[in-house]
Amino acid sequence: MIYADYNGSAPLCQDVQEYLSQRIVKGPFANPNAIHFMGQKVLMGMENARAVCAKSLGTLPKHLYFNSGSTEGISHVFYSEVLTHFKEKKILITSGIEHSAVVNSANHYAKYFNLEHRVLPCLSNGTVDFELLKQWLAKDGEQVLLVSIMAANNETGVIQPYKEIAQLCRKHTIPFLCDTTQLIGKDLFNFDESGVDYAVLSGHKIGAMTGTGILMVREPSRMIPMIIGGGQERNLRGGTQHYLGYETLAVALTEFDKKKLRLEELKENRLQFEKALQDKFPKLIILGGEADRLATTSFISYPGVHGQAVQMELESDDIFVTTSSACSDNSPTTSKVLKAMGVKDDVGRGAIRISLGLCSKGDEYSVILKSLTSAFNKLLKIDIHV
Ligand code: PLP
Fold first, then answer.
1. Domains in the chain, ordered, with CATH?
2. Which stretches of the chain drop beneath a pLDDT of 70?
3. Does 185 sit in the ligand 1 pocket, CB within 6 Å?
4. What digits encode the pLDDT tens for the residues 109-156?
5. Best residue for ligand 1 mutational test, from 7, 9, 66, 70 (most atoms within 8 Å of Cβ)
6. Which of 331, 256, 366 has the alpha carbon at shortest distance from 4?
């Protein structure tokens, strides 16, 4: 079996599996907010996990808030910034390739607080139009309440100019939320050096437990709580902490640090795989292939060949990939991200995403290549064109 949907959710990484098997047997289990010895022991473990995560993410523990994942982190930043600044600032900026956690938050607050939601277009290579953003901020910067643009796209893996955007926003004193969900654990990231004001991660994308995550905040005094509760997480996120899950975040990030030297090798394997595929099928398109991409994401399409049909062929060989198509009543449509890149429907409907992780062995590509080759040969012969 080959699991190639790490951008959707990564399996628990090796060190996390080993850690949990010991940790669950040995304990301790207690409420980290209790003042008795057991509670304090759990608290110490959780704070140690925060310190390990902070070091790996290039910042100090005081900038980290544990939560349930990126959707919560993104929602919290929108909530906090909009509720405190909607009277004097009126524009929210996102981009055309954002995850629905960002898009729907922006639409929600625009609707209920009467704000303008401006969507930055994307270029054909899959990066956002940075030059246009510069123009917007030069003209209307004083009215901008929040800029929210991702660091790496979940479909194409294309890495965005997030450090340049951070500098630009800082020049205009506009808070910048960077959705780093896909970047962290698949590329190098340093919160302090990045210059972004808010960043997020989800445990299940980095090989830690699902339902856990981190919100990174440069200036905690700007934030207000979205979940009130008993004052946990320094009054910014109420509710008893999922300390066991947060410990796995520290283990997964440490494993990433140990393995990050493999990134170059994985990128090379990915390039070789794509080249071999294009040699066999010269019409094959690598979506986002002209831009800098995550080392482990490959997004391909054979124009006219139905992506779901390819996915099913691969699945019959026990290989699990995704298409980018949003489907209803079996009529697949080109994804929002690909539409933003100007990709035509015959290409968009054929898109297949193969996403691996740092824990993948690297020999998966040869098996996927073999299976894809027979899938395309078969589908091209029987002419299942969209
Ligand atoms: N942002 C991006 C880019 C994502 O890919 C995802 C998940 O797919 C999210 C945000 C939301 O993450 P979660 O569902 O773990 O909260």
1. 2-10+260-382 (3.90.1150.10), 14-258 (3.40.640.10)
2. 325-331, 383-386
3. no
4. 999 999 999 999 999 999 999 999 999 999 999 999 999 999 999 999
5. 70
6. 366
Taking the C-alpha atoms of residue 275 and residue 111, their distance in angstroms, rounded to an integer, is 46
Contacting residues for 96 by C-beta, under 8 A, at least 6 apart: 119, 120, 121, 122, 128, 336, 337, 340
Q: Is 101 in the pocket of ligand 1 (CB under 6 A)?
A: yes
- Single-letter amino acid code for the residue at 88: E
Whether residue 202 has its Cβ less than 6 Å from ligand 1:
yes
Burial status of residue 363 (CB atoms within 10 A of its CB: 0-12, 13-18, 19 or more): exposed
What pLDDT does residue 113 have? 98
Which protein residue's CA is at the shortest distance from atom 12 of ligand 1?
70
Q: How far apart are CA 305 and CA 385, in angstroms?
A: 5
